[in-house]
Amino acid sequence: MALKPGPKVVVLGAVHGNERCGAQAIAQVVDELAAGAFCIERGVLTMVPVTNPYAYQQRTRQGDRNLNRNLRVSAEPTDYEDQIANVLCPLLDAHDVLLDLHSFHTPGQPFTMVGPTNNTGTLEPFQHSQEEERLVAHLGPRRVVEGWMDVYARGVQRRQQAQASANAALLDTGYGIGTSEYMRSRGGYGVTLECGQHDDPDAVGVAYRAIRQTLALLGLTSLALKPPESDFQVLRLEDVVDREHNDDHFAQPWKSFDPVVAGQVIGLRHDGREVTAPADGFVVFPNPGALPGNEWFYFARSSARSIG
After folding, report:
1. What is the pTM of this model?
2. Which residue from 63, 128, 235, 254 could staple onto 300, CB 3.0 to 4.6 Å apart?
């Protein structure tokens, strides 16, 4: 905390326990602050290197459940992540801006997840899209993904209609709410930065640069601000496809953002049914080890939205 007023910024690492680049990058920044390499001159900076200690210790994505879904305060917590959420949500409430550092399991380039444009709708009303886009433009990655809550609502509606999932959480309309969505619902704004593949050593550098850029952009420090990126590729999530059976398998070892053409086979169901691309687009977050009833992959298309 600085003596001069300014934004209250929170940086999270290891919301998922097997995504360790954020924790390592935060440790580097803490060391620099301790050594006096720079200081916080305005506002408040809170950094949580390991948000989910149980999952982090196990090197697993989650403990009892996915902390970054259905994030809210529970009057009667029933699992470990509920208990974490009861601490994490008030922490987010006390801040204005969130940078949440993640990684992914298949190879691919870093990208950011951005919220909706300003709106007064019922799904995700929001009034800070310009500030959020400005932050995204300075973080480094040129690939940006939108449409998170829309696609989650579509997935929940499909599961409810099919009554295909025995997991009540996957049928909850709040299932898509993670850290950034919670932050927006409380009047702030937040960006989820996917820094690279879990074990890619470059992912730590992506996270480290993003922290310093955030602090410089928002005026918490006098660190030099590097100029924003340009030529962004903006994609919009259009759908989520669940895995139905353990024997469902992909037609090839997809990587996130691999392009597909309309009608191309993405995967095969256990009974031989083909799962095909509904249009020209991209496979996002393919998870060959997804549990039945859970998200198998997402489908995205190019968006007309501009960043920067």
Report:
1. 0.92
2. 235
Domains and CATH numbers, the chain: 4-233 (3.40.630.10), 236-302 (2.40.50.100)
Coil/strand/helix, residue 302: strand
| CA–CA gap between residue 148 and residue 300 (Å, rounded) | 10
pLDDT recorded at residue 181: 97
285 in Cβ contact with 255 (< 8 Å) = no
Query: Between β-strands 265-268 and 274-276, what pairing exists: parallel, antiparallel or unpaired?
Result: antiparallel
What Cα–Cα distance (Å) separates residue 284 from each residue in 31, 84, 105, 166? 35, 28, 11, 25
Q: Which residues in 105-187 belong to E strands, given as ranges?
A: 111-113, 143-146
- The DSSP bridge partners found for residue 240 are 298
Highest-confidence segment of 1-5, 39-43, 163-167, 283-287:
39-43
